[in-house]
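Quick log. Single chain, no ligands specified.
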Amino acid sequence: MNKGKSKTKIKKNDKVKVIAGKDKGKIGKVLDVYPDKHRILVENANIVKRHTRPSARNKQGGIVEGEAAIAWSNVMLICNKCMAPVRIKMHQLEDGKRVRVCPKCNEIIDA
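-> predicted structure:
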Protein backbone atom coordinates (compact mmCIF):
# COMPACT_ATOMS: atom_id res chain seq x y z
CA MET A 1 0.00 0.00 0.00
CA ASN A 2 1.14 3.55 -0.71
CA LYS A 3 2.73 5.22 2.34
CA GLY A 4 2.02 8.82 1.23
CA LYS A 5 -1.31 10.57 1.44
CA SER A 6 -3.46 9.89 -1.58
CA LYS A 7 -6.25 12.10 -2.79
CA THR A 8 -9.89 11.16 -2.49
CA LYS A 9 -12.83 13.13 -3.75
CA ILE A 10 -14.97 11.94 -0.83
CA LYS A 11 -15.13 14.33 2.13
CA LYS A 12 -16.64 14.43 5.60
CA ASN A 13 -20.47 14.84 5.69
CA ASP A 14 -20.87 13.54 2.11
CA LYS A 15 -23.68 11.09 1.40
CA VAL A 16 -22.31 7.80 0.05
CA LYS A 17 -23.60 4.39 -1.04
CA VAL A 18 -21.70 1.20 -0.15
CA ILE A 19 -21.09 -0.74 -3.40
CA ALA A 20 -19.14 -3.74 -2.06
CA GLY A 21 -18.93 -5.87 1.05
CA LYS A 22 -21.40 -7.13 3.63
CA ASP A 23 -23.25 -3.78 3.76
CA LYS A 24 -23.67 -3.44 -0.02
CA GLY A 25 -26.55 -1.11 -0.89
CA LYS A 26 -26.57 0.86 2.37
CA ILE A 27 -26.56 4.65 2.23
CA GLY A 28 -24.98 6.77 4.96
CA LYS A 29 -23.12 9.95 5.83
CA VAL A 30 -19.31 10.03 5.98
CA LEU A 31 -18.31 10.55 9.61
CA ASP A 32 -14.53 10.63 9.13
CA VAL A 33 -11.87 10.21 6.42
CA TYR A 34 -8.50 8.50 7.01
CA PRO A 35 -6.39 9.37 3.92
CA ASP A 36 -3.24 7.58 5.17
CA LYS A 37 -5.10 4.28 5.43
CA HIS A 38 -7.35 4.76 2.34
CA ARG A 39 -10.41 4.27 4.55
CA ILE A 40 -13.55 6.15 5.57
CA LEU A 41 -16.05 5.84 8.42
CA VAL A 42 -19.68 5.65 7.24
CA GLU A 43 -22.61 5.83 9.66
CA ASN A 44 -24.65 2.61 9.98
CA ALA A 45 -22.19 0.66 7.81
CA ASN A 46 -19.72 -2.04 8.90
CA ILE A 47 -21.11 -2.31 12.43
CA VAL A 48 -18.79 -4.35 14.66
CA LYS A 49 -19.06 -5.57 18.25
CA ARG A 50 -16.19 -4.79 20.60
CA HIS A 51 -15.76 -6.34 24.05
CA THR A 52 -14.77 -3.70 26.61
CA ARG A 53 -13.57 -3.91 30.20
CA PRO A 54 -15.15 -1.79 32.93
CA SER A 55 -13.34 1.55 33.18
CA ALA A 56 -13.87 5.07 34.52
CA ARG A 57 -15.60 5.99 31.27
CA ASN A 58 -17.64 2.80 30.94
CA LYS A 59 -18.54 1.51 34.42
CA GLN A 60 -20.50 -1.51 33.20
CA GLY A 61 -18.19 -2.87 30.49
CA GLY A 62 -19.57 -5.48 28.12
CA ILE A 63 -20.22 -5.55 24.40
CA VAL A 64 -20.27 -2.21 22.56
CA GLU A 65 -21.43 -1.84 18.94
CA GLY A 66 -19.97 0.80 16.64
CA GLU A 67 -18.91 1.57 13.10
CA ALA A 68 -15.57 0.46 11.72
CA ALA A 69 -13.78 2.09 8.79
CA ILE A 70 -14.18 0.65 5.28
CA ALA A 71 -12.03 1.09 2.18
CA TRP A 72 -13.08 4.16 0.21
CA SER A 73 -12.95 2.14 -3.00
CA ASN A 74 -16.06 0.33 -1.70
CA VAL A 75 -18.25 3.46 -1.68
CA MET A 76 -19.59 5.91 -4.26
CA LEU A 77 -20.69 9.49 -3.67
CA ILE A 78 -24.40 10.22 -4.11
CA CYS A 79 -25.44 13.37 -5.99
CA ASN A 80 -27.90 15.52 -4.01
CA LYS A 81 -29.94 16.45 -7.08
CA CYS A 82 -30.28 13.21 -9.08
CA MET A 83 -29.88 10.95 -5.97
CA ALA A 84 -27.72 8.50 -7.92
CA PRO A 85 -24.25 7.13 -7.12
CA VAL A 86 -21.78 8.91 -9.42
CA ARG A 87 -18.12 9.19 -10.29
CA ILE A 88 -17.11 12.76 -9.58
CA LYS A 89 -15.69 15.13 -12.18
CA MET A 90 -13.53 18.08 -11.18
CA HIS A 91 -14.17 21.44 -12.87
CA GLN A 92 -12.37 24.73 -12.50
CA LEU A 93 -14.47 27.86 -12.01
CA GLU A 94 -13.62 31.32 -13.39
CA ASP A 95 -12.03 32.40 -10.10
CA GLY A 96 -9.66 29.39 -10.25
CA LYS A 97 -11.43 27.35 -7.57
CA ARG A 98 -11.83 23.61 -8.24
CA VAL A 99 -15.24 22.09 -7.52
CA ARG A 100 -16.76 18.60 -7.64
CA VAL A 101 -19.44 18.16 -10.30
CA CYS A 102 -21.97 15.38 -10.96
CA PRO A 103 -21.42 14.09 -14.52
CA LYS A 104 -25.08 13.04 -14.87
CA CYS A 105 -26.83 16.33 -14.03
CA ASN A 106 -23.87 18.80 -14.05
CA GLU A 107 -24.75 19.95 -10.53
CA ILE A 108 -21.99 21.22 -8.22
CA ILE A 109 -21.62 18.88 -5.22
CA ASP A 110 -21.02 20.64 -1.91
CA ALA A 111 -19.95 18.97 1.32
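The radius of gyration is 17 Å.
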